[in-house]
């Protein structure tokens, strides 16, 4: 069984934030795979389909790794079967990249996961663009998408659905340059 983790912050205040693209993608996948809610324990919302577990940590971004570790340990999931979907400011809006392992790139959700389970898991990086100045990063990722930006990004979700079925080939087959 594979564990698909969407990174984001809980609550309606953050729902359409750039930092919550992982939650939005997992919400799409939950519907597409007809997943049912298992639990709100594990410091997150956990759903299950025939082939996947889907997790939306409710710890806030900076502590996401706690939730991932609890599910990983309970279900005895190997890191090779964990796929984390997250925003990436180093990629152009709408760009899509897949990789296994690597650094956090300053992403606090990834830092937390790395600290809890190591960094040898799969990542689905969704480009949300970058603000003009470095000091604007926090306010930028916590700002809402414009409607047209969100439309562009939602077009990536079917591609992500196909890529998670074939994650080992995803870097060469499913990457996208942007909107």
From TrEMBL:
Record's keyword annotation contains Endoplasmic reticulum: no
Residue(s) at site: Stabilizes the basic form of H active site to accept a proton: 87
Record field: transmembrane: none
Gene3D superfamilies in UniProt: Peptidyl-tRNA hydrolase (3.40.50.1470)
UniProt GO MF annotations: peptidyl-tRNA hydrolase activity; tRNA binding
Pfam families: Pept_tRNA_hydro (PF01195)
Keywords assigned: Cytoplasm, Hydrolase, RNA-binding, tRNA-binding
Site (Discriminates between blocked and unblocked aminoacyl-tRNA): 9
Xref: SUPFAM superfamilies: Peptidyl-tRNA hydrolase-like
Main enzyme class: hydrolase
EC number: 3.1.1.29
Binding site for tRNA: 14, 60, 62, 108
GO biological process, one term: rescue of stalled ribosome
Role according to the record: Catalyzes the release of premature peptidyl moieties from peptidyl-tRNA molecules trapped in stalled 50S ribosomal subunits, and thus maintains levels of free tRNAs and 50S ribosomes. Hydrolyzes ribosome-free peptidyl-tRNAs (with 1 or more amino acids incorporated), which drop off the ribosome during protein synthesis, or as a result of ribosome stalling.
Assembly and interaction partners: Monomer.
Family that this chain belongs to: Belongs to the PTH family.
PANTHER family, alphabetized: PEPTIDYL-TRNA HYDROLASE
Protein name, entry field: Peptidyl-tRNA hydrolase
UniProt source species: Caminibacter pacificus
Gene that this sequence comes from: pth
């Amino acid at each position: 069984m594979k564990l698909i983790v969407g990174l984001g912050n809980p609550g309606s205040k953050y729902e359409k934030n750039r930092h919550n693209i992982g939650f939005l993608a997992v919400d799409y996948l939950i519907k597409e795979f007809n997943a049912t809610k298992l639990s709100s324990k594990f410091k997150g919302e956990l759903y299950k389909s025939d082939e996947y577990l889907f997790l939306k940590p409710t710890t806030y971004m900076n502590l996401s790794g706690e939730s991932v570790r609890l599910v990983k340990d309970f279900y005895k999931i190997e890191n090779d079967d964990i796929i984390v979907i997250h925003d990436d400011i180093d990629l152009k809006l709408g760009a899509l990249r897949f990789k296994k392992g690597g650094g956090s790139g300053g992403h606090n959700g990834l830092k937390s996961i790395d600290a809890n389970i190591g960094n040898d898991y799969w990542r689905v990086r969704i480009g949300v663009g970058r603000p003009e100045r470095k000091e604007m990063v926090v306010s930028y990722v916590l700002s809402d998408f414009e409607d047209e930006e969100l439309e562009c990004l939602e077009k990536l979700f079917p591609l992500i659905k196909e890529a998670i079925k074939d994650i080992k080939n995803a870097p060469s087959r499913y990457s996208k340059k942007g909107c």
